[in-house]
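New here. Invent one.

***
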Amino acid sequence: MTHAQWKAIMGTDLAEQVRRALVDDTLYTLSGKQTTIRAHLGAKKDDDPAKLLCNTDDSVPMYYISWYDAMEFCHRLTEIERAADRLPEGYEYTLPTEAQWEYACRAGQPRQRTRGRCAFWENSMRRSLTALPGTAATAASGTRAMD
């Protein structure tokens, strides 16, 4: 969602989200250790939120929101769209589940086809490596293969 969409649905802006993050004492696992967002950013509770903001244009994606914030946004958007009769019965806005993410990563295929390996990456690398010393293509052309 964009900053403008967030403001319209949630009523807060990026500066308010940063202010909330600065006073939040919740411990999160960030960079492999339990810490607050504030400590992770090297900030203090009373820091000016504007110092931590990059782009605040309405068209930028919203940031400084938690998973819970995003789910609340989805819940409110669902209610607004239902009230306006723009959302079919039984549908709702939500974040994808882990299973839905995995399905999307498999390009809509119901089962994993690569057995944990990325066929696209491997095929791309195979094509790009054929001209490097030590590969089958260069060995066949008389170049000494590297062991």
Notes: The two ends are 51 Å apart (CA to CA). Residues 3-95 form one domain.
